[in-house]
Methylthioribulose-1-phosphate dehydratase
Amino acid sequence: MTACISARELEEAGAVLAAESARFASFGWMRGTSGNLSMVLSRAPLRLAVTASGHDKGELTPRDVVLVDGQGAAVHGGRPSAEAELHARVAALTGAGAVVHVHTVASVAMGRREPGGIVFRDLEMLKGVGQPAHDVEVTLPVIANSQDMSELGDRLEAARNPGMPAVVVAGHGLYVWGADPRQARHHTEVVEWLLELELFRR
Amino acid sequence: MTACISARELEEAGAVLAAESARFASFGWMRGTSGNLSMVLSRAPLRLAVTASGHDKGELTPRDVVLVDGQGAAVHGGRPSAEAELHARVAALTGAGAVVHVHTVASVAMGRREPGGIVFRDLEMLKGVGQPAHDVEVTLPVIANSQDMSELGDRLEAARNPGMPAVVVAGHGLYVWGADPRQARHHTEVVEWLLELELFRR
Amino acid sequence: MTACISARELEEAGAVLAAESARFASFGWMRGTSGNLSMVLSRAPLRLAVTASGHDKGELTPRDVVLVDGQGAAVHGGRPSAEAELHARVAALTGAGAVVHVHTVASVAMGRREPGGIVFRDLEMLKGVGQPAHDVEVTLPVIANSQDMSELGDRLEAARNPGMPAVVVAGHGLYVWGADPRQARHHTEVVEWLLELELFRR
Amino acid sequence: MTACISARELEEAGAVLAAESARFASFGWMRGTSGNLSMVLSRAPLRLAVTASGHDKGELTPRDVVLVDGQGAAVHGGRPSAEAELHARVAALTGAGAVVHVHTVASVAMGRREPGGIVFRDLEMLKGVGQPAHDVEVTLPVIANSQDMSELGDRLEAARNPGMPAVVVAGHGLYVWGADPRQARHHTEVVEWLLELELFRR
């Protein structure tokens, strides 16, 4: 079982991820060189394009991307973020085709206020993550941060709400996923909107 | 009585609505794929151009628009949002030539704080929705959300303040209308400004 | 004593004011069609270019400007805002070469909290309006709103702090002035920054 | 020991600083004409390019830059900001290759709340300034403001935390440094993000 991802395929994925990154960076969600985005290029074996580490996320080029396997290790060289392992795990676990990891102020602020999980209810915007707008409590899990990606992955797997394509990592930021980069973008925008709203809770 | 709306007319309306959508999206008022805009193309029978459902509202093209009748049903195919019915009803009820529906954080946050209606008073900005700037209380109605557009329309009709071209749908967002897309834009900006101000009320 | 302002001079002023307006509009300080800007073209007799009323302040062209006299009346036709009278009065009273009137949320929110005037102290940013950064209290006056420009002008004249090129009109917005449009811009940015800071006062 | 900085070298540095300034200005961190940026061009003797005083920081050209020595005095003419002296001192003291001075609302608001220093802990974003994300308290020093750059420099030197490339000047703004303009930018974004987060502390 081999995955032949051509350089061109990888660069096309890099162009998509660079555009999505620039968009999130313009919102202030990737300050410094924080955050990273990925896109699944093959399922069996699992291969993802992940944005390269250490770059300004508003200035990526189509080549600032690394091909990684299901453990987040580089397949053909390059320097993926340590978090590539978690991207790969989210893709394997959820079947997502794209994963967004951003550092938003609202996610960290709300994660502090509601360390046991952030509950939303009766909000039309919940439909944007596939939930009903009425009469149902939807929890966005909050998990403790770790530098051990395997530990962080275990926490994500244990805490994950199948009805919510996102997890807050306390003191850190947001992981969000979707079928493709555009859906992952929309899920990210919806979850961030929900968090910004709840900051106004009294 | 027939309404002959040419493909070109519809596409011209689509270009206007795409530009207005991109503007609102840049403000963060149409996160995910939320919200929709419409423009009346004929009064008798009522025909509106409504933005197509499911698209990113910052990336619409002039063709991402559907022609609907007074019940919000597609006249020549395409997939209007379920909310097209409410757009048509607002246009019929108020005589408006354009309707804006956006999901702003301020409208949902203030709708939660003031579920009985949000009262403004002594604000120059009220002139932007045709009200006096002094000594008059102006109420922005808040109605309960529903997935039944007919029920939501009844609530809007019952709660509507003839002196305020807008309604907050609780847990959902804002409907605003005007004589044409530009006036609807200005009304939307004014109402949102008023809501953002009131979030600072102590 | 006559003031011969050529059509070209007026249009050049219009180009400057259109660019300044677009800038302020991009900050959200001129929502709807609110606010207006002016520039002195002649001192004796007093002649100002004032942005035309009713336009979107992000979309002005160099021609969307009216020549007014010291009473704010149109010299060669066109429709100045009623507030042109106040612009002219500020220019006469203070010697300013440019006047900015914007509707910012922070100015109205702070005017509500501190109706007797907003006091700043020990802030480096005060140097941006010509004040010392240390040990001096600087008051930004707040005056009651009025639709009578003559009354509003009397209040501004009575309340004005010669050491602060700005006044908050309660429930309305901000008047700021400077030697030329660029200095008026900088004064506006400084005053708005100070107001946004004070919203965090506990 | 002489430092021969060519006009071309200085202008190249000016182009970099103009681009960085425009970026920070677009975030609202350099309102009015506030703030200044610098870049080390030679170490022995110390020579820095510093943005010229009094200009709009969103409109600098590559020539709006002054060459200064280790005391912040102009080497070949031009008008450096008085703060150039502090830039030079930070560069000498820390070995930084670039210094950013911006006036952010969050830095002044948090400096008021925590005049003894702002403590961060358990935040992934701390890695962006070279600190661990867990179990360590990291203090961002707050020093009193002064118009005497020598006094301000003494305070910075005395209060400086070697593990934090930034200092808040109370009632004034933020000094941040890094190995080069890009790293200084990233440090600035990270520190500002941390401050914006802490404004949500209850």
Observations:
- DSSP finds five helices and nine strands in chain D.
